[in-house]
């Protein structure tokens, strides 16, 4: 059974930083962070291959967000710097269910309940 629990969300001023954490009971080879704002589709913001630490970011967050992992703690992190109002969304941790990609929401089977990030201008 895979359980994912996110924490670290909150409200910050534009330009500020937050670090999200995801404790995964049932660690997977590929873990990811996704976000969804009202009226928008869920989008990937960072994914990581657990063994290698290799990461994938979309251009919208590249250079501002950093995903990392602590394998001993079965935890993945999302460090978010230089936050913008458009980063406001519910952020979800996810784990891939089987072999395949490590980027699109469809690649992931297990999802946390989300943690809200609100960025004020």
Report what the structure shows:
The protein is an all-beta fold and 121 residues long. It contains no helices and 11 strands. It has strands at residues 3-7, 10-13, 18-25, 30-36, 43-49, 55-56, 65-70, 75-80, 89-96, 108-111, 115-120. The strands form 2 sheets. Strands 2, 4, 5, 6, 9, 10 and 11 form a 7-stranded mixed sheet that branches. A 4-stranded antiparallel sheet has the order 1-3-8-7, with no helix packed on it. The radius of gyration is 13 Å and the shape is globular. The protein starts with a strand and ends with a strand. The mean pLDDT is 93.
Q: What structural class do the secondary elements suggest?
A: mainly beta
Rg, Cα atoms, Å: 13 Å
Number-wise, the strands total: 11
Figure out the total of helices: 0
Shape: globular
Give the gist of this structure.
This protein has 121 residues and is mainly β. Helix content is 0%, strand content 52%.
List the helices and strands and how they pair.
Layout: E1 3-7, E2 10-13, E3 18-25, E4 30-36, E5 43-49, E6 55-56, E7 65-70, E8 75-80, E9 89-96, E10 108-111, E11 115-120
Parallel strand pairs: 2-11
Antiparallel strand pairs: 1-3, 3-8, 4-5, 4-9, 5-6, 7-8, 9-10, 9-11
């Amino acid at each position: 059974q895979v359980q994912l629990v996110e924490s670290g969300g909150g409200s910050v001023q534009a330009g500020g930083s937050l670090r999200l954490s995801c404790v995964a009971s049932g660690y997977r080879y590929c873990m990811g962070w996704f976000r969804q704002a009202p009226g928008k589709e869920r989008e990937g913001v960072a994914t990581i291959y657990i063994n290698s630490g290799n990461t994938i970011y979309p251009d919208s967050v590249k250079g501002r967000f950093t995903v990392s992992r602590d394998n001993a703690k079965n935890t993945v992190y999302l460090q978010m710097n230089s936050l913008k109002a458009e980063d406001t969304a519910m952020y979800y941790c996810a784990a891939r269910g089987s072999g395949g990609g490590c980027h699109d929401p469809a690649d992931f089977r297990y999802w946390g309940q989300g943690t809200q990030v609100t960025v004020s201008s």
